[in-house]
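In the design runs reported in the main text, the only information available to the sequence generator was the tokenized backbone. The following block is the verbatim input for one such run; it is reproduced so that readers can re-run the procedure and compare outputs position by position.
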């Protein structure tokens, strides 16, 4: 059996796949987090809760309405995005003129309420969600290297969604309106653009990305009320490392740290749970704005 630095190649490849899968979720979640922070300048600590709600939405669409994975892939992000827009318009928008700490505390409180509600309704035990038939099975890359089809699909969707979102924000007229509204809301409104509505839609898109990640995660991980709380701290670290508000930085850092975490599990498993936070500390000491952030 081929060995790499004393590690069997199948074991190394398996951890790379796992790292790439985790990196895909980190990238999509960090992207939504960065969109909200970069364009609305608020820290949405409820992002993990919306990720969990996205997974539960897919589960409920299947078990209550009989709608499978493919409709849920579209409907769940839309549903959760609409819920996010309602939350932004009714509650969060009232705090924009206050210190950002108030919004952070508000969204943290929303996380506790959402998680508590789902825990009361469904308990703490995880509920399975089936892999769609079209994506079952896998591919033998070599005699010993196996790639599950669904995991390859998750990586593909994550890359496409991340690049598409970056392109819309950085290269289109809609994106230019968003950036203009962030930098000078009064002047943007003078051109006839409804800035409050634009900010509401932006928040909805950000949490919709979190919900999409939840739908993608449902067939891999069990659907449970705490699945978001387990990821939000890591996602926050990824965004800080990439640069707060940097769309491209969040995407690249998310994928890279997922792979690095997977490799750490092979060569030094004891450090796999803290490697991302060690990197965050180092980056903040060397470049406080993050790898792709701009110093103020």
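Verbatim output:
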């Amino acid at each position: 059996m081929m060995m790499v630095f004393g590690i069997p190649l199948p074991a190394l490849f398996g951890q790379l796949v796992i790292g790439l899968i985790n990196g895909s979720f980190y990238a999509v979640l960090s992207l939504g987090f960065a969109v909200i922070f970069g364009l609305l300048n608020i820290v949405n600590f409820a992002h993990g809760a919306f990720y969990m709600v996205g997974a539960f939405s897919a589960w409920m669409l299947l078990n209550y309405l009989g709608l499978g994975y493919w409709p849920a892939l579209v409907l769940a992000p839309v549903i959760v995005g609409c819920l996010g827009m309602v939350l932004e318009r009714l509650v969060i928008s009232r705090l924009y003129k206050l210190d950002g700490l108030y919004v952070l505390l508000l969204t943290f409180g929303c996380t506790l309420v959402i998680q508590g509600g789902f825990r009361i309704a469904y308990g703490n035990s995880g509920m399975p969600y089936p892999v769609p038939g079209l994506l079952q099975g896998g591919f033998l890359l070599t005699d010993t290297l196996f790639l599950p089809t669904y995991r390859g699909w998750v990586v593909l969707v994550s890359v496409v969604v991340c690049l598409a979102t970056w392109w819309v924000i950085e290269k289109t007229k809609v994106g230019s309106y968003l950036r203009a509204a962030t930098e000078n809301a009064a002047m943007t409104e003078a051109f006839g653009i409804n800035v409050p509505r634009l900010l509401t839609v932006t928040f909805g898109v950000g949490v919709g990305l979190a919900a999409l990640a939840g739908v993608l995660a449902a067939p891999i991980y069990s659907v449970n009320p705490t699945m978001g709380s387990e990821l939000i701290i890591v996602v926050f670290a990824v965004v800080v490392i990439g640069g707060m508000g940097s769309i491209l930085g969040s995407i690249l850092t998310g994928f890279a740290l997922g792979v690095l975490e997977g490799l750490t599990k092979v060569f030094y498993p004891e450090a796999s749970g803290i490697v991302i936070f060690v990197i965050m500390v180092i980056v903040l000491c060397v470049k406080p704005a993050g790898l792709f952030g701009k110093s103020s």
